[in-house]
Design brief:
The protein is an alpha/beta fold. About 30% of the residues lie in helices and about 15% in strands. The protein is built from eight helices and eight strands, in the order H-H-E-E-H-E-H-E-H-E-H-E-H-E-E-H. Strands 1, 2, 3, 4, 5, 6, 7 and 8 form an eight-stranded mixed beta sheet that branches. About 40% of the residues are buried.
Length: about 280
Amino acid sequence: MRTAPRTATPPAARVRPAAPPRIPGDQLWRPYADCGRQCGGDGGPRVGRLRQTLRAVAGGLVLLLGTLLPWRADLLARALLRALGIRLRVTGPGVAPGALLVGNHVSWLDIVVMTALSRRAGGLRMVAKTEVATWPVIGRIARRQRTIFVDRARPRALPGTVAQVAVALRAGQAVQVFPEGTTTCGPHPVPWRAAFLQAAIDADAPVQTITLRYAHPAAAFVGDDTLVVSLRRVLAARGMSAAVLLGAPRPADAPRRELAARLSHADLEHAEPGR
């Protein structure tokens, strides 16, 4: 009896596990925030094209004059806010000398807003990611304000940056940082990163909370937004205002993680949108 010839069974194909997604270097410290287009950044009342053009021209002139003339950084920031049609409102006590200011992060506009009120802080310095220094509008203001830049692609450099903040605090300079590590929809959907609170502990410096609120959804700079797209929204926004609530100075009298958990929701019940 004839039998069917045996057929060779091919070896099972080796299935390689999918490689984990590559995290960009500048995203290593960036926490996840569930904020994107659904936050309403494209909504809200708008001005006409003529007003948008006038704002763009005015903002360009402010930056040009800021390049040619030795303006103070706070005056440059105030003039830029006015050119963009943004009103600024500040409530709460003044900034304590040598205080570490910590608060929520909504937009690139936060840098302009905080710089605009830096005069009353005796020359406020800020902590920002290194990429901000290259931005055409905000980078000039940040550099003039002696911003302390943190390289998020080099985690090993973080202790040195924290030490730099501590030196500034010991010298009586107020320093402002966004512990969320990313822009978000508002106060405060992600836990605070505690690293820079260590600077206040080491320098025995007070900590002050800030809460930033904008009365127009166009201010949000979240998700996959680009600076150009966000700037266009801001130029088109009607009735935008920014409100800054300053909390009372508090001693850095606990471990940094405990401080982060305690301060991340402080003073929110008193925060109001700007009018």
